[in-house]
Amino acid sequence: MQKGDRRETYYLSDGYFHQILTDYFEKLGWHRADHPQKATLHHANFSNCSTCLFTNGLSDPDPINDKVRIHENLRAYWKRKRVGAPPFVLPFYGINQNEGWKLEGAFDGKTHWIIKPSDGLRQKGIKITKDFREFIVHLSHHIDYPNWLVQRYVTEPLLYKGRKFHFRCYALIKIRNHPTGPQLQLYVYPKGYMYVADKPYRGDRFEDEGIHITTSCNNQEFPGKYDEYFSRRGSGTFDQVMFPQIKDIVYHTIKACDGKLSCPNDRVVDGCCYKMLGYDLMADVSNRLYLLEVNCKTIGMASHDLDGNCKSKNPSLQTPEFKEQLMSDIMNIVIFDRPTHFVRLI
Q: What is the DSSP letter of 38?
């Protein structure tokens, strides 16, 4: 089915955005398909469509989504372009479950490391430690995860109202099929959330997740809340201090995956695939941003507290208004190439 055919159909299977997208397509006059392969546009969490004109998903998301691979891609990419390491990449190691012994020399009793499963979700398997024995024991308790990222911990983070936080930033990849090869478009959203820890920051007590884990659903929207707090303290605005760094990080992480990203519907003439990305970035006290990870599979944006998702007693989550604008902007880019709030990088 070609664009312009007024029988456009859509297929949805996305718990976070189902109603928002349904409303969007109903306003367009599109019809719901009863099967993915019958749809003009397919949007779902865990699958994609090889025959749809527009499909949500990449053939292989791991070059971006896998915590180890994205860091290794960046390191190799940077060596081809410049001297040294990317300034936004913390020192790291990628190891197999059975290779923990190789890092004994990295644990000097002073440097704290954060240990994460390379394909983990929702803080499962995360540990902060400077002790080698504790590191080995932790691996032995999580044998279901074969690969791990060991990343230097930011021990002097920028604090929001005395609490540690990280930025959740949103980007969009769109890959259009073309006879000469895939054509990549990359966008970054100028709004997002600060994920704030439950408890005031302390540079010790690493066993207390309430101090150090920053995905507890105490979300504050940026740039508004950022400027309200930091610019009044003479730190500059979000657009001056943070957004240029965010654009730089998003651009280079995707360029580092050049040639590794493709569409599952790559045989559909004029077809395209697209994927929203969730970047987790942390700033230190000098306002320097670091890449923690990129989420490329399910990117949850709950408007209410789902059981087990939030550790906070009073969670502040993503607003329906934010989600509606974000998804509307994504669809307008994917289907119509219309200008939106997104900033185009490629």
A: G
Q: What span, in angstroms and rounded, lies between the C-alpha atoms of 222 and 301? A: 15
Render pLDDT for 242-278 as a digit per residue (tens, 0 to 9): 999 999 999 999 999 988 999 999 999 999 999 999 9
What's the fold here for domain 60-67+157-263+272-344?
D-amino Acid Aminotransferase; Chain A, domain 1 (3.30.470)
The one-letter code for the residue type at 301 is M
Residue 233 burial by CB count (10 A; 0-12/13-18/19+): exposed, middle or buried?
Answer: exposed
Question: For strand 54-56 and strand 41-44, is the pairing parallel, antiparallel, or unpaired?
Answer: parallel
Q: What pLDDT shows up at residue 105? A: 86
Architecture of the domain defined by 91-152: 2-Layer Sandwich (3.30)
Q: Cβ(198)–Cβ(214) under 8 Å? A: no
**pLDDT tens track for 192-211:** 999 998 889 988 877 787 88
- Cα distances from 144 to residues 85, 98, 104, 117, 288, in angstroms, run 31, 12, 22, 9, 34
Phi, psi (rounded to 5 degrees) for 263:
-100, 145
Show me where the domains of the chain are located.
Answer: 1-56, 60-67+157-263+272-344, 91-152
Task: Please state the pTM of the whole predicted model.
Answer: 0.92
> Residue by residue, what is the 3-state secondary structure of 288-327?
CEEEEEEECCCCCCCCCCCCCCCCCCCCECCCHHHHHHHH
Contact 145, 66 (CB under 8 A): no
Residue showing tokens 């309430």? 210
